[in-house]
Write a structure and sequence with these properties.
The chain is an all-alpha fold. The protein has four helices and no strands.
Length: about 290
């Protein structure tokens, strides 16, 4: 069974440096590189002046997005720390599993050695039986030789059996420990997969925050345009009102001058009283206009 692979870190979270400035710079650089890549597929080439403006715009967008990312990182901080601890425990479990595998291979080799010794002892027993058959004429001598050989071979066989029994028990214990280690590895593997899903969720939240930021910018631009239009309309209304007031003042001044002229005409000396008559008619006309 192959070792557990290390979980792939999210680009926005792996090795996040301490400090808000470093995080803002990384976000701004990512936005700048993405925009440059999008512009590379177009028919136009970015000028140095455009690149400078693009960098300033990327920094401004990063300033707006950084608080949201920091808030998300603060919310998912315990989960990230838990995922790191989970991965460290998985690595420790994998090391223990590898160590148990090496021990199992060692005990398997010992088992093969004990089996070979047992087979050798069995072969010697067969040789002893053949020796019994050859020594049938001299029973006493044959029995002594056979008993000694059988006793020695029995002792060796019993010792091999004991060693094989001990190695079998050790092998069974190692198998149980190996099964427990496999279950532990599976459990930590599931926790690592859950941590990966949390990283993906954080990435989706970051993308949603960027989209929300763009929508807010569009609404702000529209509001600024409406405000500028209303300001222009208000300025036009103010200018028209001032012009109307000035015209009214000028008309009133002209009326006062005409009234003064009519009053002065009453004192003029003219044949048949024409000047006073004109002055009277002018005043009556002005009075009718004011009445209306």
């Amino acid at each position: 069974m192959s070792p557990i692979p290390a979980p792939e870190s999210h680009p926005a979270l792996s090795g996040v440096p301490e400090g808000r400035t470093a995080l803002r710079d990384r976000i701004a650089e990512a936005l700048y590189q993405w925009t440059v890549k999008q512009a590379a597929g177009g028919p136009f080439r970015l000028l140095p002046r455009d690149e400078r403006v693009l960098r300033e715009n990327s920094l401004a967008r990063a300033d707006a997005v950084t608080p949201i990312v920091e808030e998300l990182l603060a919310e998912l901080g315990p989960e990230i720390a838990d995922a790191d601890a989970t991965f460290a425990q998985m690595q420790a479990s994998q090391a223990q599993i590898d160590r148990l595998r090496r021990q199992v291979r060692t005990y398997r080799g010992l088992k093969d050695v004990y089996l070979r010794e047992r087979n050798a002892a069995h072969a010697e027993l067969i040789k002893a039986e053949d020796l019994i058959e050859r020594l049938c004429d001299d029973r006493e001598a044959g029995q002594r030789v056979v008993k000694a050989a059988l006793t020695e071979q029995r002792q060796r066989a019993e010792e091999a059996e004991d060693r094989l029994r001990v190695s079998t028990q050790a092998y069974e214990q190692l198998a149980d420990r190996h099964a427990d280690a496999e279950a532990t590895r599976d459990r930590w593997q599931k926790r690592a997969e859950a941590a990966e899903r949390d990283f993906a969720t954080l990435g989706n939240l970051y993308v949603s925050a960027c989209k929300g930021r763009q929508a807010l910018e569009q609404r702000a631009e529209k509001a600024e345009a409406d405000l500028a239009r209303r300001a222009r309309e208000w300025q036009d209304e103010q200018a028209a009102r001032i012009a109307a007031e000035q015209a009214t003042i000028a008309a009133q001044a002209a009326v006062q001058r005409v009234k003064a002229l009519a009053a002065d005409m009453r004192t003029w000396c003219s044949p048949h009283g024409i000047a006073p008559d004109y002055a009277k008619r002018i005043e009556e006309a002005l009075d009718q206009k004011e009445t209306r």
